[in-house]
Amino acid sequence: MPELRKDPVVGRWVIISTERSRRPTNFTAGSHTKSGGFCPFCPGNEDKTPPEVYAIRPEGGVANGPGWSVRVVPNKFPALQIEGGLDRRGEGLYDRMNGVGAHEVIIESPDHDAELADLPAEHIRDVLLAYRERMLDLNGDRRLRYVLIFKNHGAAAGATLEHTHSQLIATPIIPRVLQEELEGSRRYFELKERCVFCDVVHQETEDGNGRRVVGMTDGFVALEPFAPRFPFETWILPRRHDAAFHSTDDPANEYLELAGLLRDTLRRLNQALDRPPYNFVLHTSPVSDGDLEYFHWHIEIMPHLTNVAGFEMGSGFHINPTPPEDAAQYLRQITVEEAGGGAR
Amino acid sequence: MPELRKDPVVGRWVIISTERSRRPTNFTAGSHTKSGGFCPFCPGNEDKTPPEVYAIRPEGGVANGPGWSVRVVPNKFPALQIEGGLDRRGEGLYDRMNGVGAHEVIIESPDHDAELADLPAEHIRDVLLAYRERMLDLNGDRRLRYVLIFKNHGAAAGATLEHTHSQLIATPIIPRVLQEELEGSRRYFELKERCVFCDVVHQETEDGNGRRVVGMTDGFVALEPFAPRFPFETWILPRRHDAAFHSTDDPANEYLELAGLLRDTLRRLNQALDRPPYNFVLHTSPVSDGDLEYFHWHIEIMPHLTNVAGFEMGSGFHINPTPPEDAAQYLRQITVEEAGGGAR
Fold it and tell me: Which pLDDT does position B29 carry in this prediction?
């Protein structure tokens, strides 16, 4: 059983994963994405993954057979385990609980060689709809506090399978960075009665500004944050206040607009940086928290251009060699080779 | 001029480094350690670095000439700049200040092919003495709040020059991770009137325990922390309460004992993990804070065995595939090829 353990000084929870247990000799010099050979995510191999928990089948078809455009399955080597109780307990001054949670894979396309940025906006919209369905479904599990959705693209960014996919980890604790954002934005709201992200969006998009804006639609903006940790770190936010990614009355249309801007942004990054490895993480309020007035969901895209040294991990102090104003300018100047669904 | 910028949501400061400014085409697929060719850290090339700020010359000799065993120089491409005022200012809701600070390189040996772990304990002691001298000297600068000392070993861990060295960054803000540790340990002290690190040391070393202990001397212990972020993450702590690395009455002897355990620990990691890239970061109280009763200095060693995916950066949530009890057992079983100065 995997375990969640809490650092007694700073309160950081980590997953000690036993399913993926590795001895010293199991660590190779670098990670490699499996390429060529058998792919469990390809159509026809549906029986090589755990049974699907969600799928979009435009032309119909049976579960765990071909015909899907987006398919969600439990991770075969999950970092957390869905069965069992939390069994919270102490060990002297330490705190631990069972590693209960969900770990799922969102297979974004049946096409083994596709890349998210190259899919049509309508298809990316369907990926976003799958995110939402899984969040809403897992919200029913009272043991879980947060549903984290993220994508590792490319071996250097942590992807271990080539076939394009995102991941979902649902946890009985709120991930640290999200907790810090929730606390920081609540403090700001207490001080000013305004959402800090709304203030950021206003300041970045108001007349005469826009130096850090990469792209914009009616409802969304892609921008380089003022204090980015990484070169070309890019955030996409709704322009109007909205705490939760899932809380839309019109997901089909809203997500299509978002998909267009996400696609356009990823394509700009791809062209500017020669198809870099990247990660993105969806930051949204805890599903059970409802419509917080102080939080504002967004997507953080982090191209993997420099080695994050343990120094930066160990100090929390990032040195970024590319001012965000420069990065935004490069990205705006890109001519996206094909119209990207609604982006300016 | 480099700039310090603060994220308005979570309050994280980043260095936007202009000296090292990089355009999209400047990012290569990975980082490489320069190997072969000219080395500015080798004896005879002293004029190729900025003038030294400290050196140990066992047989005497003139500044900026050969004959040194440890040499400290300002970084030629500093992330921060030592001249100038902080010039704190706002921009709408954002906060920034000039990137004032020191960025120095501690060249650990004149031997280009040496590795810290392979140096004699007495030599490693001298490296630690150099750390201390620089901390005490920079403490005189009222603009600076923290002196961070760290080592990147190997290209994958962020080292850009092969010749063995550590780095020092002195900053007008306290790095985030240190701030969190200071706050966390202060809260614990308020609750219990005890130092949390002392409690950790007691619990880990008391009779019948020791499952996470890697090595021990009279004054120091090397252990795998209860909730490690990384496989084989190893901490070295003084066994008795001590807030500040520099606050010793007998640095020559205390640091020799520490050097022996550090050397032994690095050699165990080297043998277990086939000389992995690694980072270490010295966590100590802010120099100006004096003897805090709630904080406890220590060294955190992080072998670089897995890619830290943006997911982990973006969520603060780490998945560690090696339980620390297993890691400690592997490391204890290693027969260190040569006696390592006092370690058990």
Answer: 45
What are the beta bridge partners of residue B235?
B223, B300
Of A65-69, A139-143, A153-157, B306-310, least confident by mean pLDDT is: B306-310
Residues of chain A found within 8 Å of residue B30, distances taken between Cβ atoms = 156, 307
Of B266, B299, B29, nearest to A156 by C-alpha is B29
- Contact between chains at B169 and A317 (C-beta distance less than 8 A): yes
Catalytic, A165? Answer: yes
Residue with tokens 């520099």: B246
Name the superfamily (CATH) of residues B3-17+36-171.
Answer: HIT-like (3.30.428.10)
Same fold, B3-17+36-171 and B176-333: yes
Residues 67-96 of B with CB under 8 A from A: 79, 91-94
Closest CA to B147 of B137, B158, B161: B137
Q: Indicate yes or no: CB of A8 within 8 angstroms of CB of B229.
A: no
- Domain A3-7+38-171 carries which CATH code? 3.30.428.10
Check whether B340 has a pLDDT greater than 60.
no
Q: Which amino acid is at A224?
A: E
Taking an 8 Å cut-off on Cβ atoms, the answer to whether A316 and B176 are in contact is yes
Rounded Cα–Cα distance for residues B53 and B134 (Å): 8
Residue B325 sits at φ, ψ, to 5 deg, of -65, -40
Where do the domains of chain B lie? 3-17+36-171, 176-333
Sequence-ordered strand ranges (E) for A84-145: 89-91, 94-98, 102-107
Is residue B228 within 8 angstroms of chain A, CB to CB? yes
Q: B176-333: which CATH topology?
A: HIT family, subunit A (3.30.428)
A149 touches chain B (CB under 8 A): no
pLDDT level of residue B166 (50, 70, 90 thresholds): very high
B285 at the A interface (CB within 8 A)? no
- Contact of B235 with chain A, judged by CB distance below 8 Å, is answered with no
Establish if B199 touches chain A: CB-CB under 8 angstroms. yes
> Tokens standing for A50?
């755990």
Looking at domain A177-333, its CATH class is: alpha beta
pLDDT band at A18 (very low <50, low <70, confident <90, very high): confident
Q: Residue A259 has which token pair?
A: 């998909």
Dist. CA A257–CA A264, nearest whole Å: 11
- Partners of A29 on chain B (C-beta within 8 Å) are 156
Query: Which candidate in A153, A165, A296, A304 is catalytic?
Result: A165
